[in-house]
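Go through the following before class.
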Amino acid sequence: MQIVDEIINKYQTNNDLYIGEKVTMSEHMIQSAMLAEQNHSSESLICACLLHDYGHFIIDDPDFLVSKSLDGKHEDMGFDFLKDYFKPEVIEPIKLHVQAKRYLCRNKSYYEILSDPSKISLKLQGGVMNDEEARKFISLKFYKDAIILRKYDDDGKIPNIKMKKIDDYRNLITSQLINENDHNRIISKTILP
């Protein structure tokens, strides 16, 4: 359970990390999870929403990257860190949520609803997907969950609303950890061809 304490601590100690938005990263991820809950999403998807931008907590200075127009690949950073602890249903949509934005932006009306910081990061993340990239994306197992996560991500940026606390999600986070048998199976898949 040490990882759960570490995650909760990261939320509590990163209350001033905005990355260009009108809410902090902590507030944004909690709002995304609250939206998933309100829409009766699975516990795994709620947890994915809660952790989808966790990579920003790992990057040394994400605000500096934003100021220099650099992509920190937060989705890969978060996935690489969380994959040893969480079920694939949680981490795969996290890994794909930036691709989901690029895919959804093929629709101009979707692009128009993005926040300005999200439009800027889209360019850094590869821009709108071409047809081949889109075909590859929709062939992935968790692409639908990534699209749903992405839509909650877009809507979870409202300042000054009544919010849950990260501690309210302790049991949910714990429930989505891989158990020892799952962990051993993942390790053996990684090691054995």
In short: The mean pLDDT is 86. Residues 13-175 form a domain with the Hypothetical protein af1432 fold (CATH 1.10.3210.10). The chain has one domain: 13-175.
